[in-house]
Structure formats: C-alpha cells, structure tokens
Amino acid sequence: MAACLLMLPALAGCGSDPVSKAAGKGASRGVNKLINLGKKKIRQSVRELGKNPDTALVNLQLLHRYQVFGYEPSWNAYKGGWERHYYNLLSHLVIGEYDINPETGDARVDTASRVPLNTTLLDSARLANPGIRVLLLASYTGDYGAPAERESNYDYLLTDAQVQRRLSDSLGALLAHPLFQGDGIVLELGRLPAGSGPKVVKFIDGLRRWKLKDYDIYLKLPPQGREVYDAQTVKALSDGPHVAGFILQGYGFAQTDSLLPMAPVQGRTGQDIASALAYYEGAGLDLSRAVVETPWFADVRQQQGSAYIPHPVRPQIPLDEVKARKPSYFPGEEGVSYVTRDGYAYVYDDGATLRRKYAWLRQAGAGGASIYGLGYNTIDEGPWRAVSGAFASAPPRLIYPSLGFLLLFIAGGIIGSVIRFWQVRNVIAKRRAHQWYYGLALMAVVIVFAICITPPAPPQAAGGASFILVLFPFLRRFTGMIKRWTG
C-alpha cells in the first residue's frame, strides 16, 4: 500500500491535464501525511520507552531478596477461583493439608492432602510463574484423641521413630508424585506442650532421615511461643540445617471482648507482631529467614451488651463476603472494623492496612510475608497491590539495555579510532590532555554500559551517568577555557 502511494506522484507526472496534476498533488499530500504520521508514531514510541512501566499486577515481578508465601486451603482449592490469583507475586505456593495422625503418621483426611493431584491449580500457578516453589502443609494441632490423651499423643508423634519414618515416607511419596512434583513442606505444630522445643528439633531431624531428606522444610512459629520455643531451641533451629526458613503467624493473639485489630503491628505489648519478632530475634532467629503471615479473611464478632465475642457459628468469613459500606480504621491503620446495625462486627485488613504492615516488615528486616487464604479474596486487588508495593517491582525496560549496547558501540569506536588512525595516535602521544580525555571517556562509557545492562537497571543511576557522559566534552572545553583565562 505504501509503495503504491509513493509511486502516485511519479505516475501523475505522466499526464499534463489539470485532472492528473490535481491527482498528483493530492497523492503527494497523502504520502506526506503518512510520512508525518509515521514520524509521530516513532516519536511516541521513543517517549514511551522512558515512561514508567506498566503497573498492571500481572506485569510485576518479585524482588529476589524477598519471599512471599501464599497458602490455599483445600476447601478453597476445590471451590475454584484460584485462576484469579497473581502467582507472579508469590515465591512459594502452599496448597492442601496433610493432617497428621500422631499414632500412625498417616493423613487423617486423604482428600485434603491430595488436593494437588485432584485439581489443575498447580498448572495455572506454574504457567503464570514457572519458578514458583510448591509446598504441602503438614500440620498437627494436638486435637487427636480424648482430652486426657492428647499430650501423650503429641509426645508419641515427636519421639517415635517408626511414626516419623512412615510420616516422612508418606509426605515424600506425595511430593514426588508426577502430578505434584513439590519442593517441600510447611510444618505446623499447634498447641505444643510447654518445654517441647528440643523434641521438635529431634522430630525434624527424624523426618530428614528418610524421604524428606532432599526436600525443604519450613517451620511455622506461633505468635506467642516462648513456652515452647525457648532461646536454645530457636538458636538450634536457626543455625542448623534443620529448616529452610520460618513462617511467623502474625495473628491469633489473645482475644478480648473489645474490638481490636486482628493482626496488630504495634500498640499491644506482648500481643502484636513487633513483640513477637522482637522475642524471636532476641532468641537468636535471623529475621531475614522469616516471613510474617497475615490472613485474608475477616473475624466476625457478635455484640453482647458492651462486649464483642466471636461468632458461635462462623467466627471467620472470606474477604469476598464483607460488604462494608462505611468501614472505620483503627488508630494507626492497624486494621479495619465494620459494625452493622444488627450488632455484628467485622474486623479485617484491606489494601491500605496491609500496605502499611508490609512496609513495616521491610523496615524491620523480615524476609517477606505470607498470606493465609488466597481464595478468600478474589475480588479486591488492594491486598495484591499491597504485596507488589512492598516486595515487587517492574521488570527492566528496553531503554536501558538499548542504551547500554549503544554505548558499547561508542566504546568500540573510541578504541577503533586509536588502533586504525595514526593521526589519532600521534595527537594522543603529543598531548597529555588528550590521553586523559580518551581514557576518561572510555572509562565513562564502560561504566554506564555496565549500569544499563544490570537487571533491573536503576533509572536514576543510568540517567545520571548518561547525563555526565553527555556533558563530558563540554566540561573539557570549559576547563580549557578556564586555563587559558587564568594562564
């Protein structure tokens, strides 16, 4: 089409009648408009290279120094909706539950432990993020058997070698299944008897003797664990090869009858995330190996007089079910509360409060964050934007590697001119000022090239170095003028 339009003026010249001349002029104007339009589009494309990258969540990537865990319970996985998760913002996906039978080591509910084999969730996650690591939750909360037998059952699980071997082999077989191909487990031991810390260390070592020896084990820590995880236990777990990392539960603090934030960062001494991190850090835990978990569900409270107690039927509901018209923020944006006219109160975190908490975790030196219940929030992008704002960035733009390779050609030109032309070599040999000029110019080009090809290229550094490079010849002329005036 463009070739035909370019030929129209030449063809129009073959005729001398007014109609042919008018047609020729019209064709020329059309071609000029197309050329101008093309120039405009090129200028727009060049300007787009320098603009901020697209902030669509799907285009962001997790920063390498942080980890973000996302836990999808089995009931959410079977329900669906997981195709709307932003797996590119996760480093680890925890799926399903292996609820441990303390007497045998087998799973108490097969359907919950075999979620990865019965759904296509993992296919969606790995398609969106090929590097995501997939884990299985292995948990025991001390609720097996009669109340009088629960402590002895816990002790049996933590000390019996046969139970540990069967548990390790069962978990290893699940992780090695072709439909799963998992990378490890998250171990959650709830309601541990006081003083069980040394037994937990030996228990993890026992699991590693068998099929779990080649898999990662992450340990979930309670928000108030000083009775179990004393300084000696924490130090042993943190320094040794027992676990790959830690997930600190940032909610589930002691409940009161008042409306309080569900996962407070600060403000409740001994009952907040800051106090929990301070205790574990003081006990010897390297915080860079720990992520803090916050839930994506809402606590439901029922009003009784002036007090608010947990709802007897549904103490938690998904964020998708919260229909807050005028929510109120706790002081310091520690959380959100919404009280209905019929006396129900919903306490949860939204995008704004999570953004503040994730930013605080970064400043505190934590290794990242963990999300409990990905499928509880499939509508609001605010929580995902809070994750991306603290732990993700845009991929490097094309402009920086392009600028880098352009500068590489400039460096090659400088070196080539010295090698090829004897006149250049003579001038450089005669005047020391030219030696400095060529040497510093080559060094500046190489430095800017190295900055531009480093992913992700820092815009401020690349832009500043490029500006210095452009000004270099002018600075040389200016210093020469100063020397002449002062000489």
In DSSP terms (H or I, runs of 4 or more residues), the helix count works out at 17
Please outline the major beta sheet: 8 strands, parallel, barrel
- % residues in beta strands: 15-25%
Poorly predicted parts: 1-15, 48-54
Q: Kindly name the structural category.
A: alpha/beta
Radius of gyration: 32 Å
Strand order of the largest sheet: 2-3-4-5-6-7-8-15
Termini distance? 65 Å
Give the proportion of residues in helices.
40-55%
Question: Could you characterize the architecture of this molecule?
Answer:
There is one protein chain. The chain is α/β, with parallel strands linked by helices. The chain has 17 helices and 16 strands. The protein has an eight-stranded parallel beta barrel. Strands 9, 10, 11, 12, 13 and 14 form a six-stranded antiparallel sheet that branches. Helix 15 crosses helix 16 and helix 16 (432-452) packs antiparallel against helix 17. The longest helix is centred in the N-terminal third of the chain and has 33 residues, at 18-50. The protein is globular. The model is unreliable at 1-15 and 48-54 (pLDDT under 50).
